[in-house]
Amino acid sequence: MNDLTGPAGALRSLQPSCGPVRLIAIDGHAGSGKSTLAARLAAALGGAPVLHLDDFATHEQFFDWTDRLYEQVLRPFSRGEPARCAPYDWTARRFGPVRTVEPAPVVLIEGVGAGRRALRPRLAALYWMEWDRAASWARGRHRDGPELAEFWDGWTVAEERHFAEDPSRPFADALVRQLPEGYEWLPGPRTDAGMNRSVTQGERLTGSC
Questions:
Q1: Domains of the chain by start residue, with CATH
Q2: Which of 14, 63, 171, 192 has the smallest set of CB atoms within 10 Å of its CB?
Q3: Cross-strand partners of 178
């Protein structure tokens, strides 16, 4: 089933990680279902804010958005203040109007690189979408259509380089597999290594839902 009440409850029990905010990262290959999971978790949390890394990346900087995210989101949240960010318009190729995001108890951040090294100290939990790279890319290409084939050619090279230099999966608290109906939650590599500090005892995000 698609009920995410259990995982949502576990998120609420975490210690704040960025000021008063429990910042939850959902990482994985492009096309792996990160934005869909984020939307469903946000709904289960009663409308938690979702930050999309596609709003911070640009055509010229697929992954060089860390400083922008820090200044616009992480620094304000750490002070208990609203984030103010200008989402990038991929059609107009420029940043759009400023969006304000309040420092809610749980804020989800989804996108390729959400669990990168520079962000992990600010995260309450990191989830990795456990979906094959080639299958994820194929799904993304199909979703975006042939007119974006050239973009995808450049993206896959950049993504492969990023994860080779700064992998996220080894530090994930949970691996999330999308099933025909719902999701399966498995302990992540960080949990297996005994380093998981994000999910309280008895509330580990495992099983299917």
A1: 5-190 (3.40.50.300)
A2: 192
A3: 183
